[in-house]
């Protein structure tokens, strides 16, 4: 099997020659790996990482507003500034463009992104080239998460309780924008895309951020619409959802997710064996290697044990699992632990 065949077989829960692997990492981690292997080294090849390729449209819309000095801005009007924490630097959100909106008229004055803002012309060639060896991903649709980004986390959590009509209108406009842009990309690349992110972040470290009633009333219909869009083009649905989100899984499976990431097994209800037992007949799992304690602070042998445990639990039937860290590898993770993770997956994950 090549990487494309291996990843797609895992997603479809078909027989594998070995467990496929993927990597998400911060810029500092990539720099550490380049220093370790030497410039010019293909790190994916050196670590036997299968990976998933990604293609997307080029922004060609109205000129972006000029952000304050030291900040960035995107086409949503979301601003961020770089914060250095000593162990790593991150762009933290500094401005929520709809934080002050109070009425539906306020929402209508906001410049919602349109499909015509994006140039898809280069996508088919890029997708055709990538799919020679890799599964290809395209798109990111996340209504709850972008509700958080546009309004601010606390305000977005209160919105459904304080003003249901306002919240429904905001989510409809947001989701229409997502849908329009992704429909254009999927039509342009018809038959060339394997997976798309229909995603959100409903979980904290200890439990859900919102109740199931709120999820079902305000967010689930939009997720289903996005999942239906993907399925209409034969695209598998990749769902990223941090934290303790087990109560949402039956609903997410009902709307049609295919791949669950990141499988944070140290959160309540997210134990690997239970997830595989209860949902392994319909889900492929992606992630699973603890990125909060084991990878940054464990020994290489503890990392290897974590890899073996994840493979034994999430691929107990020898399929349905793509091994990767739980979210981006962080700068505090020693290179030795990263090497141990992929080396153990390469040797222990063969069938």
Calculate the terminal CA-CA distance, rounded to whole Å. 12 Å
The number of distinct β-strands equals 12
**Rounded radius of gyration (Å):** 20 Å
- How do the strands of the widest beta sheet line up side by side? 1-7-8-9-10-11-12
| Helix-strand category | alpha/beta
- Look at the structure and give the CATH class: Alpha Beta
How would you characterize the largest beta sheet?
7 strands, parallel
Mean pLDDT: 97
Q: Are there runs of 5+ residues with pLDDT below 50, and where?
A: none
Helicity range: 40-55%
Please state the second-level CATH architecture.
Alpha-Beta Barrel
Order of helices and strands: HHHEEEEEHEHEHHHEHEHEHEHHEH
* Count of alpha/pi helices: 14
CATH topology tier name: TIM Barrel
Oligomer: single chain
What's the structural domain tally?
1
Beta-strand portion reads: 5-15%
Categorize the overall geometry: globular
Reconstruct the topology from this structure.
Blueprint: H1 3-11, H2 27-37, H3 43-46, E1 53-55, E2 58-59, E3 71-73, E4 79-84, E5 89-95, H4 104-109, E6 118-119, H5 123-130, E7 136-141, H6 143-151, H7 153-162, H8 164-188, E8 195-198, H9 212-232, E9 236-240, H10 249-255, E10 259-261, H11 272-279, E11 284-289, H12 294-297, H13 300-314, E12 321-325, H14 335-348
